[in-house]
Amino acid sequence: MSYNLLKGKRGIIFGALNQQSIAWKVAERAHEEGATFVLTNAPIALRMGELNALAEKTGSQIVGADATSMEDLNNLVEKSMEILGGKIDFVLHSIGMSVNVRKGKHYTASNYDFTTKGWDISAVSFHKVMNVLYNKKAMSEWGSIVALTYMAAQRVFPDYNDMADNKAYLESIARSFGYFFGRDHKVRVNTISQSPTPTTAGSGVKGFDGFIEYAEKMSPLGNATALECADYTMTMFSDLTKKVTLQNLFHDGGFSNMGVSDPVMDKFVGEE
Length: 272
Prior knowledge:
Blueprint: E1 10-14, H1 22-32, E2 36-40, H2 43-46, H3 51-58, E3 61-62, H4 70-84, E4 88-93, H5 99-102, H6 112-135, E5 139-149, H7 163-185, E6 188-194, H8 208-218, H9 226-237, E7 248-251, H10 262-265
């Protein structure tokens, strides 16, 4: 169902890879809500070919960019304003990758070149994106910037590896840069801490399927899906949340406030 929440708004969406991606769902929903936007991803992701289908479905153009490259990001923002015909109203940062996870390196035996690369892609890229948007004054007043995160930034999830550190850094950037963006340009910056979601990135984490089942049993409302996250993101891009900024917003069915649940206890305690 469409509510025209984003009618006339222009955006940039980072990180749509395939139909499992939250960013893919955000793009579909933004299109339904009346927005126009540019899709962007790293060159290696573009070569996988699936983004063309999303661009065709949503009437969008694709501008490739390495989100760790200031040159690429400057080009992306300039081209996006040219394509869309004005300043940007919303941006989604949905980028995350741990080389240590991909290479099977345990957290206690990290390869620090891998650590640095993953940190740059997953967290510092958010600072770089906002740096370009801020200094080019590319965002509309009352615009909205959202990055996706996960509660391993605050709690221990052993197999989430250095992505937990990356997400903690990402959330801090949102608060720190968000202050200046709000003060100087009336732009809001928030992170959405989503339930574990079966995306390409998430599935690389050891034991991920088991963890999704655990989170489902722990959450009073169950896990939030990628589509439900996209719905929530629409409200954050809309004018209905103009005074929400510097927040880490949990969208996880209640998981983040749980200690234990009956379904989880039932696994360990027999009926008396």
